[in-house]
TrEMBL record:
GO terms for cellular component: cytoplasm; membrane. Keywords: Membrane, Transmembrane, Transmembrane helix. It is found in: Membrane. Signal peptide: none annotated. It is a multi-pass membrane protein. The keyword Membrane applies. The lineage of its organism: Eukaryota, Metazoa, Chordata, Craniata, Vertebrata. The chain crosses the membrane at residues 181-205, 217-238. The keyword Metal-binding does not apply. SUPFAM superfamilies: Aquaporin-like (SSF81338). InterPro entries: AQP11/12_channel (IPR051883), Aquaporin-like (IPR023271), Aquaporin_11 (IPR023266), Aquaporin_11/12 (IPR016697), MIP (IPR000425). This is Aquaporin-11. Its main location: membrane. It comes from Eudyptula minor (Little blue penguin). One of its GO terms (molecular function) is channel activity.
Amino acid sequence: ASLLLMASIMLTVGLCRRLTRRRLRSHQRLCIFLLEMFSTFQICACTNELCLLSNVEPKPHTALTLTYGFTVLHGLTLTGSTCNPCGTLQPMWGGGISVKMGGLKIGAQFMAAVLARMFMHFIWSLEMAEPHFGALSQSCGNPMQTTELQAFCIELLFSVVFQLTILRVESVNPKYKVHLIALLITMLVYAGGNLTGAIFNPALAFSLHANCFYDKFLSYSLVYWIAPSLGKFLILYVS
């Protein structure tokens, strides 16, 4: 049921993206906003569901396989969208897009994060699958299983590694690039998923752990917003 749910989300988002391109081509800003929102919604919604499957046996093989598979699918179906506020900083820094357009994309990403969380909470309340039972009873999932300093350094390091890899594989054939990126993300999740969740995406982090931001805003914003953003700026500065 969970796999069917995620497949349905991807199919629906694909249809919405296609309709947006066809009907709103003349409204550039609205088109870009909606495309970014739909794409980020897909990643956030599917990742929320994947988190519920992290304890499915055999552990961690099932979770890592699903992470790799759906990351490949996201890469193949969401071309042209960054779905990550840190990724939006690069064209803003280089002058590829205006600050206003970058702000529009980041706003779309965080809006999608909130909508995805609300949508998944509604789906979980229906209790259509076994992993959904009790999913709403959790307040803060507490993804940080280490000190704040260590969590900050981990998310900073992972952001640097991820963003540096993105720059290095720009010239690679798209058919192979999506698998390289998916493999990297899977490896990072394996290496640090039990410590911080290995998210390195501010919008996704907010969608997954919004309650934690409400309870411990300073700590979680430092680890899941500032650390990956700082990692991105370090890459932009040295490149």
